[in-house]
Amino acid sequence: MVRFKNRYVLCEVVSEDPRCRQCIEDRAVGLAVRDAIGRVHGDYGLACCSISFTVKYLNAYTGTVLLRCRKDFYRLLCSALPFVRQLESRNQRYPCSLRTLHVGGTIRTCQKFLIQYNRRQLLMLLQNCTNEEERRCIQKSLLSCSLTEEQPQSGDEEEDDGIETD
């Protein structure tokens, strides 16, 4: 059996309209990216990228999108992302673009990069603070930026889907 290797492309939705981020859906992002690939690379590029293309993660609040495609064709995907001009959701069109932040081999590497990226963004915000309350809030956010694994519980306790019986 052959394992197919994938690449994960971490993107950010860039829009001047604040409603755009709140209304986007993973289906709309997938259709917009497929449309851009078809316009830039034609049927060949669309067929190559559509084999295992999926939107793995979408955070509408932060505008973060994680796309998955085959390793052999991730360059076609990355080259078409700047040509995404709008997202259509609920019969509304929102002008926006996708900015590539990182390309990784696993979701975990993209997650680590995103934490570092957000930390850098918070540091930039911290430098531009105007009052002490904003400064404290951003410092608190900076301290909470970490990727930790849950420690397995030791002892005689058993895990039964989070239900404890006495």
Summarize the structure.
This protein has 166 residues and is an alpha+beta fold. The chain is built from five helices and six strands, in the order E-H-H-E-E-H-E-E-E-H-H. Helix content is 43%, strand content 23%.
Please provide a written account of the structure.
The structure is a single chain. The protein has 166 residues and is of the alpha+beta class. Helix content is 43%, strand content 23%. It contains five helices and six strands; from the N terminus they run βααββαβββαα. The chain has helices at 18-23, 26-50, 74-80, 107-127, 132-143; strands spanning 6-14, 54-59, 64-70, 86-89, 92-95, 97-104. Strands 2-3-1-6 form a four-stranded antiparallel sheet, with helices on both faces. Strands 4-5 form a two-stranded antiparallel sheet. The model is unreliable at 154-166 (pLDDT under 50).
